[in-house]
Amino acid sequence: MVNAVDANWNVVTNATNNVTITSSDSNATIADDNGATAGNMTLVSGTRTLSSLTFKTAGTRTITASDAGGALTANNSSGVADSAGAFAKLQLLRFARQRHRQDRHADNSEHIHCV
C-alpha cells in the first residue's frame, strides 16, 4: 500500500498523484495498475494498494515508491528477504533452428531470408 502523507504521517486524502513502484530485483514482476507501464498507479484519496509484485531473484530486496511528477518524496521499503523455493520440477527449453535462404539477383545483389 502506498500513502501520500504529511510531515506528521497523516494521509493526505486529496492527493491523486501518479506513483511508480520499482524493485531492487530487476527480474521482479510488478503489476500494471494504470494500464500503461508496469509499476504505475494513481493514488485515490491519497492511497492505493498495488495489486501484485513478485520477486524473481533470491536475496534481500527493496521496493521504492516515487511520485512520477516529482512533487512527493520517494520512499524505500525495508529489506525483504526472498529465498528460492524448493526444487519442484525440471524445465526443458527447445530452441528453434532457423533456416536461411540466400537469393542472388541479376544485378548481383543478394537477399537473405530467414524461414
What's this, in brief?
This protein has 115 residues and is mainly beta.
Q: What do these coordinates show?
A:
The protein has 115 residues and is mostly beta strands. It has one domain: Immunoglobulins (Immunoglobulin-like). The protein contains no helices and twelve strands. It has strands spanning 2-3, 18-23, 29-30, 40-42, 47-48, 53-54, 59-61, 63-67, 75-76, 80-82, 100-104, 110-114. The strands form five sheets. The chain has a four-stranded antiparallel sheet, with no helix packed on it. A two-stranded antiparallel ribbon has the order 1-5. A two-stranded antiparallel sheet has the order 3-6. A hairpin with a 7-residue loop joins strand 8 and strand 9 (75-76). The mean pLDDT is 76.
Number of helices: 0
| Mean of pLDDT | 76
Cα-to-Cα separation, first versus last residue: 48 Å
Task: Give the percentage of residues in beta strands.
Answer: 25-35%
Molecular shape: globular
Structural class: mainly beta
Features:
single chain; 115 residues; mainly beta; Immunoglobulin-like; two-stranded antiparallel ribbon; 35% strand; globular
Record the SSE blueprint:
Blueprint: E1 2-3, E2 18-23, E3 29-30, E4 40-42, E5 47-48, E6 53-54, E7 59-61, E8 63-67, E9 75-76, E10 80-82, E11 100-104, E12 110-114
Antiparallel strand pairs: 1-5, 2-4, 2-8, 3-6, 7-10, 8-9, 11-12
